[in-house]
Amino acid sequence: MTTWPLTTERLALRPFEPDDFDAIWSYRRLPDVNQWLGGSLDPDETLKRFAEPGDGLTQLTILHEGGVVGDLMLRVQDAWAQRDVVEQAKATVGVLGWTMHPDVGGRGLATEAVRELLRLAFDDLGLRRVIAECFAANGPSWRLMERVGMRREAHHVRDSLHRTRGWQDEYVYALLAEEWRDRQASPNVDASITKR
């Protein structure tokens, strides 16, 4: 059972509230931010997705010193399974996403927020695996995945269509619950072991 807000040393994470949207849209509409986002560039459509996220999707707001500095997404979904064991695969995988205001970049806030999102996924929700995907050209996103201990599992070549850059490469990262727990038990383990 999750008690909101989730708190870290510097942040509070809680489910999206409609009053958060103006602050969220203020950074999501910036060209340097929205160039990497898969969602709509229309504020009304974006608000609807945040306010009515649909089955398995949770939209979280990241607060720092009382203000909105970012947002997180966690979609819980079924793992692929053979038909006779499909029930065991239900709601075992989390798909992660994040967007941060560029004004707070370089302070480790995104890393802190995503680490708490992983804790939520593995400890509170009992997921067995999480994944995150990004355009290969989005270095800040995949470097964040590596900082939190995720491993690059796939490099898809020119499989993702970008609205202005054309066909782009995609990276897929993942982390298993047992890997995350091992790192929590041994926090001095160098996360660079996950890098390729």
TrEMBL record:
Keywords: Transferase. Gene3D superfamilies: 3.40.630.30. One of its GO terms (molecular function) is acyltransferase activity, transferring groups other than amino-acyl groups. PROSITE patterns: GNAT. InterPro entries: Acyl_CoA_acyltransferase, GNAT_dom, N-acetyltransferase. The keyword Transferase applies. Residues 11-178 form the N-acetyltransferase domain. This is N-acetyltransferase.
